[in-house]
Amino acid sequence: MANWILGLTGGIGSGKSMASRYFEQQGIECIDADQIARDVVQTGTTALNSIIEHFGTGVLLPNGQLNRAQLRSIIFSDPAEKQWLEQLLHPLIQAETERCLHESQSAYTVLVSPLLFEQGRHQQCDRTLLIDAPEQLQRQRTMVRDGTSSEQVESIMSSQWTRAQRRSMADDVLLNDQGPEQLYQQLKVLHKRYVNLALKTQR
After folding, report:
1. How far apart are CA 98 and CA 166, in angstroms?
2. What are phi and psi of 185, to 5 degrees?
3. pLDDT of 203 higher than 60
4. Are 190 and 129 spatial neighbours (Cβ–Cβ below 8 Å)?
5. 10 with 166: CB under 8 angstroms?
6. Predicted local confidence at residue 2, as pLDDT
């Protein structure tokens, strides 16, 4: 397990990916729960075969890969299906996350997860950082980035914690309502602090 872990989270469209890219540019390893979630359902995996058996081939793209947008629309309109999928994938994601954290060699390690608090993953972190943004801005960014409808964005946001809930849990909060430069300046200060905290832990 990595010596010192930072939990990085934020609502959809808040700027988590931008923040994780900054940390990676500083030589910090970022373990992305969303990326791991994609990896465990790659073509040929046991998890994807189970999903096909349960939902049918309608959740596949023409190339045989999982149609994540189609599956998302199904589970966000049916809580029972969402629960079934979570019970299948969460143990697999957790096991792969633990493996990646254990193998990390950087000064500290960032665990990136949109559901860091909701799923209790913050409990394995030494500190947590929330990238925060006004809800209207979250909606705009997500619709432009993913080409999704406002209804689908609302459904995703309603399944996540509110801004107030996240802010009450996070150790550090950065408001990302301007642009990359503003965010990077704030992250620069925090990165130095995290390196120092990690060093103190190792002594």
Report:
1. 23
2. -65, -40
3. no
4. yes
5. yes
6. 54
